[in-house]
Write a structure and sequence with these properties.
Layout (H helix, E strand, L loop, with lengths): L1 E2 L2 E4 L3 H12 L4 E4 L25 H9 L7 E4 L2 E9 L2 E8 L14 H5 L5 E2 L11 E2 L1 H8 L5 H5 L12 E7 L1 E4 L3 E3 L16 E3 H10 L9 E8 L15 H15 L4 E6 L9 H8 L3 E5 L2 E6 L4 E7 L4 E7 L1 E6 L1 E3 L3 H8 L24 E3 L9 H24 L1
Helix pairs in contact: 1-2, 1-10
Length: 410
């Protein structure tokens, strides 16, 4: 049995910030993360600095992760998720399913030899700076492709860190509060076939562009004409997603500016309905950022394959006619939706969901729910940027700390 003050579900921007704040106040934390490392979605995003910092906030997530290094009141379970909850006199007893964990983090030296040796592509190294610093084996890819016969990674590992026979485990945990920081799901543009995603080569999502830019920005050199398409899966009532995702205009403009900085001769256009960038000084900064980027007011009606390019057909709202333009790469600025797993998690924890299936909170940003002792932070409660997720993580952690303190004195 593991006993901690607070269990934080999800190790993205919000969960890391909540954990850091609680640890700073002397509370013990168990961070439960579904994937093999912390950082959440933003762990795969690129820094969008041009000559100056563009305040995309991506580096803030690594800062939050770094601040947890060596915290002795922190326990972490990766490849883990909640399977059962019981309420016991104001505290909770949880069953957390984990694994199997095939690489021992104490022994892994991140040399990458297992990655090179694996014929199935089942092994990954974590992005630098996001603990735990250990390679991980995807057991589904590994076992499905190699049955029990392949031991290439085991033989390649110089420290004997890999055990392919490792079994899944269930941990029983007792805690006094739970913070749900399980994040969001980007919109899957296959639901809008007219935009060509998955069918037309050269049509990718913004998340895929983020990953390419982070991993190998030089690999984008061949793309001399790049278009962004805004509001893909946002502000679309027909899809049941009438809300604005709040982050897409900002990340698209920043990505566009970075693409132009990397190659000033590159044409970059953004197709938009209307740009959602508000706040003090913000408009001016956007105008500066958007210099050299074509802003085209018109939502594309269709995206199709040309002979050697991608053709964007759109209604030019300023000129009132349909036009078609060729690009090498079309980036769909996908919006933020609720995770499909929210339904099951809400059932386990006895929480309510809002009409868009994000977790319902009593006060947005404050994070309390209808269930005493259970709180929600970050994009699990609705679209927010990294700064917002971090702020919510912190403020929810402070509210939890207050509640635990009150109970201590009660
Ligand atoms: C394409 C794109 C680009 C973006 N670019 C920017 C940008 O440049 N700047 C910016 O400020 N914002 C950006 N955003 C928004 C940014 O992604 C979010 O603000 C941020 O990721 C929210 O952090 P979070 O912790 O709430 O959620 P997440 O990042 O989604 O983290 C949630 C974590 O919880 C884990 N998890 C999920 N379910 C469970 C479970 N059941 N149990 C345990 N763990 C679980 C996940 O694996 C993940 O690690 C972008 C969004 C998109 C879609």
């Amino acid at each position: 049995m593991v006993t901690v003050d607070v269990v934080v579900l999800g190790g993205g921007a919000a969960g890391l910030a909540a954990s850091r704040t609680l640890l700073g106040r002397g509370y013990s934390v168990l961070l439960v993360e579904k994937e093999g490392h912390t950082g959440g979605r933003a762990a795969g995003y690129a820094c969008k600095a041009t000559d100056d910092c563009q305040q995309c906030q991506v580096c803030l997530v690594a800062d939050e992760a770094r601040a947890l290094t060596g915290a002795d009141q922190l326990k972490m379970l990766v490849f883990s998720s909640l399977k059962g909850v019981q309420n016991q006199n104001g505290s909770f007893q949880l069953d957390v399913a984990q694994g199997p964990i095939c690489v021992d983090p104490q022994r892994c030296i991140l040399c990458g030899r297992c990655v090179d040796a694996c014929p199935a592509g089942a092994i990954r190294l974590p992005p630098p700076g996001f603990p735990p610093a250990s390679a991980s084996v995807d057991p589904e890819i590994c076992r499905a492709r190699n049955a029990q016969t392949c031991r290439a990674c085991v033989e390649a590992c110089p420290t004997g860190a890999i055990d392919l026979q490792a079994a899944a485990r269930t941990h029983r945990v007792r805690c006094r509060a739970i913070i749900v920081a399980t994040g969001f799901q980007p919109f899957d543009p296959r639901q809008l076939p007219r935009l060509g995603y998955g069918r037309v080569p050269g049509v990718i999502t913004a998340e895929e562009l983020e990953r390419r830019m982070r991993g190998d920005p030089g690999g984008l050199a061949a793309f001399k004409r790049v278009a962004f398409v805004q509001c893909v899966g946002s502000r679309n009532v027909t899809l049941g997603r009438g809300y604005c995702s709040q982050v897409c205009c900002r990340y698209a403009l920043r990505l566009a500016a970075r693409l132009r900085r990397d190659d000033p001769g590159r044409r970059v256009a953004i197709f938009y309905m209307d740009l959602q960038v508000s706040g003090k000084d913000v408009r001016m900064r956007w105008e500066e950022l958007g210099r050299g980027v074509e802003l085209i007011q018109g939502a594309p009606a269709s995206i199709v394959a040309g002979e050697a390019e991608v053709l964007v057909r759109y209604e030019d709202l300023r000129q009132g006619r349909v036009r078609q333009e060729p690009f090498d790469l079309v980036v769909l600025s996908v919006g933020m939706g609720a995770s499909p797993h929210n339904v099951e998690l809400a059932r386990l924890l006895g929480l309510n969901l809002d009409p868009h299936r994000f977790f319902a909170t009593q006060e947005r940003g404050h994070g309390s729910t209808s269930r005493r002792g259970v709180w929600v932070a970050g994009s699990a409660a609705g679209p927010t940027d990294i700064g917002g997720a971090i702020r919510q993580g912190r403020s929810v952690a402070l509210a939890v700390a207050r509640q635990l303190e009150d109970r201590r004195h009660a």
